[in-house]
Amino acid sequence: MSDYALYEDPDTKEKSYKRFAPRGNDGVNFPDFKNFKFDGPESSSALKFACESIVEELEDDIISLFSSEADHVAKTLCSEVSGHCKSSVFQHTEL
Q1: 10-28 average pLDDT score
Q2: 62 near 55, Cβ under 8 Å?
Q3: What is the pTM assigned to this prediction?
Q4: Do residues 38 and 5 lie in contact, with contact meaning Cβ atoms separated by under 8 Å?
Q5: Share of the chain above pLDDT 90, in %
């Protein structure tokens, strides 16, 4: 989680956590850092807490999806079950 930081979209002002450090083999360049908010170690702690809270809230749904061997678990969980990923910006396969 230390490779993620709060990002504010310059056009919409929408805030989300985005990866700022590219993986070694994905061929992606470093992003423009001016829209990232780096608040030190507590920033990744906030992201960790948010993730843990979502998992706790959706624990039964997560177990149900995995036990039913559903296809596209991450997409289903993110877009349909939780409603956290409605925007096309969040439709990544990174989960």
Answers
A1: 79
A2: yes
A3: 0.56
A4: yes
A5: 6
The pair of structure tokens assigned to 74 is 């991450």
Q: What count of other Cβ atoms lies within 10 Å of the Cβ of residue 80?
A: 13
- 32 CB contacts (<8 Å, ≥6 apart)? none
* The pLDDT of residue 94: 47
The counts of H helices and E strands in the chain are 3, 3
Average pLDDT rounded to a whole number, residues 32-58: 80
Q: CA angle 10-12-14, nearest 5°?
A: 90
What distance in Å separates the CA atoms of residue 56 and residue 30, rounded to the nearest whole number?
33
Domain borders along the chain are 1-38, 53-94
